[in-house]
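Give me the fold.
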Amino acid sequence: MNDTEQAIAAAGHLLGDVAPFAPVPYFWTDQCETRIQAYGIFPPGADLRIVYGAPSDGHFAAAYGHHGRVVGVLGWNAPRQVRTLRRLIVDRASWAAFAATPALSPATVK
């Protein structure tokens, strides 16, 4: 993922884009039959919203809001949902606007 973001930033700079390279922090791990993925940051005191599935079902996606913005996304056996939600961090989406939207459904996941 980081190599792709670096290539996009390098191409942008060659074409005159002056935006600083600021990739979204990311990690993933497979633990037995569980895939855990996280984008962004997870500050203490952040708001949390489960937007897909449920922890008790063994698969879910959650978003974290802090200082009025979506700052993190965590997925537990929900790779498509996490990939869809990642865009909120890149776009610095408003937490209030996001929190007012319905939870993800299979139709909204790409």
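Strands lie at 26-31, 34-40, 47-54, 59-66, 69-76.
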